[in-house]
Amino acid sequence: MFNLRLRQAETAFAEGRLNEAARLAERSDVRDHRDGQILLTKIVDAFVARGREHLEAGRLKEAASDCSEARKLAGAQSAVAQLAASIDAAKHVAERKILRKQQAAAVAGKEIARGELELGARLLEQFEADGSSVGSVAGQINKQIAIERERVEAATERARREVHAGHTRESVAAILKLQKLSPSHPELVSLIDQVTAPVVSQVWSEVEASRLDRVEALIDTVRPLVEFDPELTEACRAIESARKVNSLLDAARFNEAYLRLRKLSPLLKNVAWLNALTDQTRQAAELAIELQSGPLSLLNDVQESRRQLSKPASHPVHAESFAAGSSAAGSSTADNRFHQDSLPEQLILQIDGVGSALLLRQPKVTIGAPAHARSCDVAFSGFPGGGPLTIEKSSGRYRLTTTDSCDVAVNERACQDTPLADGDTVQVGTRCRFKFRRPTAAVPTAVLELSGTRLSRPDIRSVILFDETLIVGPGQSSHLRARNLDQPLILFVREGAFYVRHGMPERAQRFSADGSPQGARLLTLGSLVEIGGTRVTIFPGNT
User: Fold this and answer.
1) How does residue 327 score in pLDDT terms, banded at 50, 70 and 90?
2) What is the DSSP string of 485-528?
3) CA 537 vs CA 276, 347, 514, 531, 534: distances in Å
4) Measured between alpha carbons, how far is 22 from 16 in angstroms, rounded to an integer?
5) Contact partners, residue 177, CB within 8 Å, separation at least 6
6) Cα angle 443, 247, 207; round to 5
7) Which SS3 state, helix, strand or coil, does residue 299 take?
8) Which of 436, 508, 498 is nearest to 290 (CA)?
9) Residue 388 carries which DSSP code?
């Protein structure tokens, strides 16, 4: 009986039936026989050899099965362990390939869903798939690509047809559908341009013809395509800016409207009426300043001041306590104003974004050489050694006078006595030059802009001939330019005190309860005031 079972195992092995031979050889009566041990070794070697063949051919499941059979017969032999390790490494590589395929398939599916069919097809080529299998991932994605291509072709044909027929609204709807199906379709830009170009051209024509009331309806016909057309976007920006300017004009905020019109000019280069409107708005802003800071406003100041003084005090004030309190460090705002009745004739003004300026309050200013600084109000470098030059203000007008010993030319014409107008250039000798500016007729204050000369303090480039009011802002009507300001700063003197206001007052100036003009901040000498995001300092100066 024993010899028969061993004989059967040997026959199965010889005929290549390894699994059957293994079932017979693993029985205890065969294992214990010397010939059975030899047969078991041959069977294990055969399983290992066949397992390696399966592994090299990529048949991991069959290789793992043979390795398992060999392990049952021989345990953890070296050859069996090496085969098992090789199979595990191959499984890990295969799993990573499958993961990459799944990721590529997911990305391809997303791109196809976004309408990027060509990109999806290229991503699909990055992993191998069984194309003959209808249920495979690649087969499903390819089928989806074919369906989406048909939809895109149909949408493209419809968009071409509507654009060719000149149906604007239908063309917009068809283009939007095509853009949704295929955002990077090569014909999109051309189709959008064919629809928007006539509308944009008509919009600019209406703007140039001053018919802004027709523009909105024109833009509405192609508004969904604004984000896809730069020229249409620019036209919409211009109309929106014009709408804001109109709102500012309705609110009588002329200075802000003027600044917006200046920004609008580059967008509307060929519009003739824009320059006239900009100039009219600038004039309106200057007239508003003149009206709000004119002589009549002083009547309101006096009336309000009297009304404030006529109010009964909440606490009795004795003469002794008033005298003591007026010199205390913690004096009130009103007290500070009374202390400044004798403001210095020369002041240094410092403003963020502008720099420093010398402010002269006297109506008659003498200019001379540094060597004669004690005998003149201000000394300019390069001024020749002759007599001084005088600029005097009378009745709101400025006049330049000098002596025979001083070589002076105004606008390159020699003179000794001449009125000064805005923009006049004054040359003294060969090395001293400055420009006279009076930017607005509404305010008597003038500015000497130093170009070919300087003061002893090199940080000061402007001398202000101050007369009650000074404008600091971005507009042409400003005495000192500050492009970073959205609204001008107005510096003015009331009852011997300096004040600063951010923006133009919307009505005739009135006093607050503490005696200061409403909306204005008191400027005490040597202290820093921050208003409208800008810091202002004023202190006695001697250049």
Assistant:
1) very low
2) -SS-EEEEEETTEEEEEES--SSS--B-TTSSBTTEEEE-TT-E
3) 38, 10, 21, 11, 10
4) 11
5) 155, 158, 159
6) 105
7) helix
8) 508
9) -
**Taking the model in full, what pTM does it have?**
0.42
Q: What is the C-alpha to C-alpha distance for residues 111 and 14, in angstroms, rounded to an integer?
A: 58
Joined tokens for residue 532? 């409208």
| C-alpha span between 364 and 366 (Å, rounded) | 7
Residues of 258-278 as b/e, b for ≥16 C-beta within 10 angstroms?
bbbbeebeebbeebeebeebb
- Sign, CA dihedral 477-483-487-489, equals negative
What is the per-residue pLDDT across 410-469, written as a single tens digit (0 to 9) for each? 998 988 899 999 999 999 988 889 999 999 888 899 999 998 788 888 788 899 999 889
Q: Identify the three-state secondary structure at position 420.
A: strand
The pair of structure tokens assigned to 417 is 């006595």
Q: What SS3 class is residue 162?
A: helix
The set of long-range contacts for 287-291, using a CB threshold of 8 Å and a minimum separation of 24, is: 287/442, 288/252, 288/254, 288/255, 288/504, 289/440, 289/442, 289/443, 289/469, 289/471, 289/477, 289/490, 289/504, 290/440, 290/441, 290/442, 290/443
The answer to whether residues 173 and 155 touch, using CB atoms and an 8 Å cutoff, is no
Distance (Å, whole) CA 116 – CA 514: 70
Three-state DSSP class for 382? coil
Residues 6+ apart with CB under 8 A from 484: 353, 474, 534
